[in-house]
Automatic annotation (TrEMBL):
Top-tier EC class: hydrolase
Keyword list, A-Z: Aminopeptidase, Cytoplasm, Hydrolase, Metal-binding, Metalloprotease, Protease, Zinc
Record's keyword annotation contains Methyltransferase: no
Keyword Protease annotated: yes
Pfam families, per the entry: Peptidase_M49
InterPro entries, A to Z: Dipeptidyl-peptase3 (IPR005317), Peptidase_M49 (IPR039461)
Species in which this protein is naturally found: Paramecium pentaurelia
Protein name listed in UniProt: Dipeptidyl peptidase 3
Catalysed reactions, semicolon-separated: Release of an N-terminal dipeptide from a peptide comprising four or more residues, with broad specificity. Also acts on dipeptidyl 2-naphthylamides
GO annotation, biological process: proteolysis
Subcellular compartments: Cytoplasm
GO molecular function, one term: dipeptidyl-peptidase activity
Length: 703
């Protein structure tokens, strides 16, 4: 068998700075609020390294200490004086900037491992040449000996994030845990009304330990027994990090814009101190009520994409500032949303009775402390809150990239022009419809704690029988639909966006002032973007493990397959050569968007929504998996995509500092060295607790 090529971050990887000019328009009180919430976000982001891999926090600590003691320029000069070439220094800095931006050594977009391009002995030499190593030689040596093997290992089980028994590694579960035991534990927790969101699990001898993230509570609670193993909840996971979060949120309270924000922050603090998810839910109820703030924020254990079981959440926190002009367009969409939802293709009984009009704002990100920044968000993810109280949507406008002609692959001349010219408008349309109506529509059939159902006498259109299945209290739909649930939901939201884009009156709301011809071009660019996302995303499919590594990419692929299975002539591939290598270009019959394309998406949406509504994970995944398979044709396309693949850009975020009572925006050079400098600044030289947590508890997650 051909040896797998070492997964490195190419030196061609560009750095892309996020700019936040709106910060300078804030008044002094708002700037202080933004400052302390930003510090809270980054204080907690140390958790992300522990959730990424066993070795990530150890390397994080070493790199932080190195660049706290010496600047990137000083380290560069020292390496060049000690037989490092310019190319080797660049390999090193490219790896380190990617490591910091992904909060570890697995790509946040793809969940696959990347290793240093610099040879192992040269990486050790880099460590040993630094001032931090000379001052902490014993500690550095101890930590490096624990992680060195894992930093450079990428063969199975170290190549992908997954359970060990499925050929991967992760740091949500100790490797001696089976999928069967984890599932039984989670069912056991549901019966006790306990959430898994802010937990990790280890099997320690004959004890199943549920590690609960909390800063003040640190007791051990016996919960019962499963499979002959005692189950205990161990509070105090990530204690020091969450103490930093709570301390800064307490400071932010002093600068809150209104009483709702004060109460919201209080519930956040209680949640992080106690580990009680119910208190986080209270914070989200208040967050929904905080309408139209100038500074929009959120923080907690939010998205479950990273967990192989898709039930435990990754930490994240963000601070952003409203873009008034784009927010007005999104507000117009919210106003019309109730009427737009009526156009969706599933039976009306599968739609929520009353659409709660959410806040929908376009924001400029100031800080997004996590392993990756999305272009849009729809939260909270708690189904009971979403259905009964509503949610909020945000569009993160300053995160959008901009393609250039040289970077576009697999398209012909006129399609390249279309893609580039309408990229921003088409993405704005898709993100707006995806977040507001995609994630905001569709009913979940559930039973409340009193045993009352939120539906009656509903007929399942696929069986023509009454619906008898539903979600129990504290049962989340992700648990029913398993490891592909994230992709399933992103596919549903993207499909809603494409489906509604075929209604010209909907598109007109978001791009006023455009002619009918221009609006049609924007719709074509939107569909093309999803199609190209699926094709370029084939690089995130592991042929060896028959596994997709990125839920948004799989969502696009399912959409593409649903269209092709409906009409193979809709999207065709023309094979050729480019730079003396096999190549292909895509041909799309755009006229079919409003006919066959719309019909294909309608059929897809009907299945996705009905199975999700009735909690039928088994048949829902059978339906979904009809479109997830990668056959020989697409394996061939995948090889071509890999041959011509381009590295993703590495994100550079600004920060803020307190200087003589004034809050100032801090920006960094748009380079790999700038990314490193930014991440040293984000964590404010406060990383000793990372070393202690790594040495104390992370060892349970070593494969």
């Amino acid at each position: 068998m051909e040896q797998q090529k070492a997964p490195i971050i190419s030196l061609e990887a560009k750095v892309s700075a996020i700019e936040c000019p709106a910060f300078n328009l804030l008044d002094d009180k708002s700037k202080h609020y933004a400052y302390y919430f930003t510090r809270a976000c980054w204080a907690g982001a140390k958790i992300c390294y522990f959730q990424r891999s066993y070795e990530a926090p150890g390397l994080f600590y070493l790199l932080q200490k190195i660049f706290q003691k010496e600047s990137t320029t000083e380290v560069r000069d020292k390496l060049l004086q000690n037989e490092f070439t310019e190319n080797q220094v660049q390999q090193l800095y490219t790896y380190i900037s990617a490591f910091f931006q992904n909060c570890g050594n697995y790509l946040s977009f793809g969940d696959s491992k990347f290793i240093p391009e610099l040879p192992q002995e040269k990486f050790l030499q880099f460590l040993q040449l630094t001032k931090a190593y000379s001052e902490q030689q014993e500690e550095f040596t101890k930590i490096w000996n624990l992680i060195e093997k894992y930093i450079y290992s990428y063969e199975k089980p170290y190549g992908l994030l997954d359970l060990l028994e499925k050929g991967g590694s992760n740091s949500y579960y100790s490797p001696n845990l089976s999928k069967e035991l984890i599932e039984e534990l989670d069912q056991f927790l549901h019966k006790q009304n306990l959430s898994e969101l802010n937990t990790r699990v280890i099997l320690n001898g004959d004890r199943l330990e549920l590690l609960v993230a909390s800063s003040e509570r640190s007791d051990i609670v016996e919960l019962g027994e499963i499979q002959g193993k005692k189950v205990v909840a161990v509070y105090g996971d990530f204690k020091s990090f969450l103490n930093g979060v709570a301390t800064n949120l307490r400071e932010a309270q002093k600068y809150a814009a209104n009483e709702t924000q004060v109460k919201m922050l209080e519930e956040y603090i209680k949640h992080f101190q106690s580990g009680d998810i119910e208190q986080h839910k209270e914070s989200q109820k208040l967050w929904i009520q905080d309408k139209g703030p100038i500074i929009e924020t959120n923080i907690g254990f939010i998205e479950t994409y990273l967990d192989p079981m898709k039930v435990r959440a990754e930490y994240e926190g963000f601070v952003s500032i409203v873009n008034q002009e784009e927010s007005k367009l999104l507000g117009n969409l919210v106003e019309k949303a109730e009427d737009i939802i009526k156009d969706l293709p599933w039976p009306k009984e599968f739609e929520i009775e009353k659409f709660s009009r959410p806040d929908f704002t376009s924001l400029e990100i100031l800080a997004f402390a996590c392993s990756g920044t999305p272009v849009g968000i729809n939260i909270p993810n708690y189904d009971d809150i979403r259905q009964n109280l509503g949610f909020k949507n945000v569009n993160l406008g300053n995160v959008y990239g901009k393609p250039n002609r040289d970077s576009v692959r697999f398209l012909q001349g006129t399609d390249i022009d279309l893609f580039i010219k309408y990229y921003k408008e088409s993405l704005f349309v898709v993100v707006a419809l995806h977040e507001l109506i995609g994630h905001g529509s569709g009913k979940i059939f559930m039973e409340d704690k009193e045993g009352k159902l939120n539906f009656e006498n509903v007929i399942n259109p696929f069986t023509n029988e009454k619906v008898t299945t539903f979600y129990k209290p504290n049962e989340h739909w992700h648990a029913k639909f398993g490891e592909l649930s994230g992709a399933y939901e992103e596919c549903r939201a993207d499909s809603v966006a494409l489906y509604l884009s075929t209604y010209d009156d909907v598109v007109q709301i978001l791009v006023p002032g455009k002619t009918k011809e221009e609006r049609d071009e924007i719709v074509k660019a939107a569909w093309l973007d999803i199609i190209m996302g699926a094709l370029k995303g084939l690089q995130y499919y592991s042929a060896e493990q028959s596994k997709w590594g990125q839920p948004h990419i799989l969502a696009s692929y399912v959409i593409l397959q649903s269209i092709i299975q409906k009409d193979p002539s809709f999207v065709q591939f023309i094979h050729s050569e480019f730079n003396n290598k096999p190549y292909f270009t895509v041909q799309v019959d755009y006229n079919k968007i409003w006919t066959v394309g719309k019909e294909a998406i309608a059929d897809l949406l009907k299945g996705l929504q009905v199975y999700k509504s009735v909690a039928d994970g088994e048949n829902g995944m059978k339906f979904f998996n009809k479109f997830t398979q990668v056959d020989q044709q697409f394996l061939q396309l995948r090889e071509i995509v890999l041959t011509h693949k381009q590295p993703r850009k590495i994100e550079l975020q600004p920060d803020v500092r307190l200087n003589n009572g004034q809050i100032e925006l801090v920006v960094f050079p748009e380079s790999h060295e700038g990314v490193i400098q930014s991440h040293i600044f984000h964590y404010q030289n406060d990383v000793e607790d990372v070393k202690q947590e790594f040495l104390d508890r992370q060892q349970y997650f070593k494969n």
